[in-house]
Amino acid sequence: MPDHDTRAYDTYDRLIALLDTSSVDYKLIDHEPEGTTEAVSALRGHSTSEAAKCIVLRVKVDRRTTRHVLAVVPGDRRVDLDAVRTLFAARYVGFSDAGTAERLARAVPGTVLPFSFDTELEVVADPAVVTRPRLYFNAARLDRSLCLSGADYERTARPRVEAIAAPVPE
């Protein structure tokens, strides 16, 4: 078994406990370690549109106020930074630095969950995520994924649902 960051294991255990106590029907999928949406979707055997792509963003509302947002979009789309900027009436929106993203998501890159266990990290999910019959994502580990319905995801994660996805440029 690969060596894992203990924070990832803690996040994994917390996720499973949340899903079990919420009576969510989910499936665990073990696979080769992989963190990119396209490659892990192929390993799991589904289209990238069924994957949850999770990106930690830094949102500068004004000179003194910075918020952190976990943007969740379908795997075949990208985060529309302008839509997020408009949503928060922000001056600037960009990708969070790796250290901040790991600290807030409590997971290493490629394993970020579409859930937040940190009050500083607000989850915003695109409507296309919560309407999926099946939603796949790495379960805070590179070698294990999870599948559940978009409705169960919405019920347990309680994201703010807003249109934040855009097509990937050709």
TrEMBL record:
GO molecular function: aminoacyl-tRNA deacylase activity
SUPFAM superfamilies reported in the protein's UniProt record: YbaK/ProRS associated domain
Family annotation (InterPro entries): YbaK/aa-tRNA-synt-asso_dom_sf, YbaK/aa-tRNA-synth-assoc-dom
Source superkingdom: Bacteria
One matching Pfam family: tRNA_edit
Protein name: Uncharacterized protein
Lineage: Bacteria, Bacillati, Actinomycetota, Actinomycetes, Kitasatosporales
